[in-house]
Amino acid sequence: MSNTDFVLAIEDLTVSFDGFKAVDALTLYVDKNELRVVIGPNGAGKTTVLDLICGKTKSTSGSIKFKNKELTKLSEHEIVRTGVGRKFQTPSIYENLSVYQNLEVSYPKGRNVWGSLTFKRTDAVLEQVHKIAKDIMLEDHLEMEAALLSHGQKQWLEIGMLLMQEPELLMLDEPVAGMSAKERDQTADLLNRICENRSVLVIEHDMEFVKKIAHKVTVLHQGKILAEGTMEQVQADERVIEVYLGH
Ligand code: ADP
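The line above is the sequence of ABC transporter ATP-binding protein; the predicted structure tokens follow.
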């Protein structure tokens, strides 16, 4: 497989903060329909990698190609338009709107040219909202005010809002933090469904959850890759046990 066949191809990526390399010559390839999990101790550089991909942080050197398009010179908005969606740990949903409206305003045309929200119940929007509400297990809560959802349901709603924009790469930072065991299992099923149509990149600490979802695991340590492979492979790697899993 040539490097141009990957959806995401990160090569020799470095970012320095006052001389400190938070990400150090990182090379990482993610396939179409792959669900990749990035693990590693605190301060390893995991969040910074997602920040670099979505343009929140600018790299010092190296390249990030998404569908063969170079992202390092693009703005955050331009990167979203290429098909990259990022979910942060704290959900940014509209608490006072219904589940339906939250999904509706996330439809790419749900904002007018001035950036304010518009509610257009066209057939295309209606169809998309219902399809995604089913995926995120909220089809029976469409008229409920988002503030009344459980913590887990709010996380799913935000994932749904990102899916409304049909990203080809979805990035999630600790998606099951604070969830119940049942919600964690449901989220694993949700992510497995999501990657049938797109690639998913997840940062996660919950190893039981990682086992359920990861096609491949990348272990970061001090901004570099310590190990990469299936969960079984990285779990058996002595360096990984020493710096991360052994604690
Ligand atoms: P992780 O997500 O693996 O816990 P981070 O990516 O948040 O790690 O951070 C990696 C390292 O980079 C940490 O030492 C952190 O303090 C440092 N870092 C991250 N962002 C900045 C920044 N904007 N300025 C200075 N240092 C930063």
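Note on the example: Residues 17, 22, 40, 42-48 surround adenosine-5'-diphosphate (CB under 6 Å). The radius of gyration is 18 Å.
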